[in-house]
Amino acid sequence: MVKQERAVRTRETLIRSAAEVFGREGFARASLTAISSLAGVSSGALHFHFESKAALADVVEAEALARLLAVTRTEPPAGASHVQLLVDITHRLAYELRSDVVLRTGFTLGSELSRPARTGLREHWRGWVEKELERAEAHGELRTEVAAQDVVTTVVAATVGLEGLGVRDAMWLSAATVSRLWRLLLPAVAPAALLADLQAGGTRPR
Amino acid sequence: MVKQERAVRTRETLIRSAAEVFGREGFARASLTAISSLAGVSSGALHFHFESKAALADVVEAEALARLLAVTRTEPPAGASHVQLLVDITHRLAYELRSDVVLRTGFTLGSELSRPARTGLREHWRGWVEKELERAEAHGELRTEVAAQDVVTTVVAATVGLEGLGVRDAMWLSAATVSRLWRLLLPAVAPAALLADLQAGGTRPR
């Protein structure tokens, strides 16, 4: 039992170390030696858990997707609008991208040209934004003059842009930056009657 | 003279081939053999022009920057607003990103983790958007309720997002997608009096 716990912990450490090295060097240049050395385990131990660098990257991406799902599965506070939930989750995602190297690297791995294209984190994020905006529209939370698909395109493009820019400069993932985005977008998206209740800075204290 | 012309042409072919291979494989995995073979020249000829893969990537990025400068240097049509120029240039950039592999790869090379961070194409684009929106503000083309910095953040994030998403799916760089973005943003950005003259689909036929 103790041995099993240690194996689980070693595996977690390896995933985190892999995310750090992939995130710093990129997938193609990252070496398994650098990863095992950062994790403080032998290369034999690394190969016991992961058969190849590609397998390790797949696991980092899967673990990052699980964390993204945990972010997007957040329940809205009672009575909160879908638009406010979208604002809150965008803030939460930016915060997690700043602080969680596994989540951050999961996004960059998905767009690395040296790995095969697959349904990655961006695609999941796009799907979630779309579904949430469909709900907002069904609840009369979008201005009638606005096409929901225009909002989906703009929100997905802008948030993926913040994620990409944030790789090199975390300022793009700050709460101030996310608030700037929503300060401009909310009046374009939500009817005037709802605007007073919507907060571009989000409603969840962290 | 003929010999010199041939050398210039070979160099151009090598840059284009390098952009294609970097764009498909990523910098770290791209091989000089694949590049010279795609260009139809010997590896000796490649080494005559470029001393290393890093030097070749630097030249691709510099050539892409020159092309981006050609896009952003476009003069506005007489009487056109700065906001309309921004819309038009965004459309032009998306079009060029779809059709010009050197420009497209110049953007992705700048965000590849396996290369050192430097002032790349995104940074130039950000600076140009900022300057153009400052001019728009000075000419009363932004709504007074709107902070120019909110517009800069949103436009830069959204356009960089389209560029990044467009690497894997060119639909994100279509004129329809860019128009969706501006259809939502223009009423948030420009005063009501100017809106009738602004065209989200751009004013330049291609």
The fraction of residues assigned to DSSP E strands of chain A is under 5%
* Count of extended strands of chain A: 0
Percentage of residues in helical conformation of chain A: 55-70%
Overall geometry of chain A: elongated
What is the terminal-to-terminal distance of chain A?
36 Å
Tell me the name of the CATH class of the largest domain in chain A. Mainly Alpha
Class from secondary-structure proportions of chain A:
mainly alpha
Give the domain tally of chain A: 2
Oligomer: homodimer
Along the chain, the helix and strand elements of chain A come as HHHHHHHHHH
For the biggest sheet of chain A, the summary is: none
Q: Average pLDDT value of chain A?
A: 92
Low-pLDDT parts of chain A are none
Could you tell me which chain pair has the largest interface and how many residues each side has?
Answer: A-B, 42 and 42 residues
Computed CA radius of gyration of chain A, to the nearest angstrom:
19 Å
CATH topology of the largest domain in chain A: Tetracycline Repressor, domain 2
SS summary, helix count of chain A: 10
In CATH, the architecture of the largest domain in chain A is Orthogonal Bundle
CATH H-level homologous superfamily name of the largest domain in chain A: Tetracycline Repressor, domain 2
Protein name (chains A, B): HTH tetR-type domain-containing protein
Keywords (chains A, B): DNA-binding, Transcription, Transcription regulation
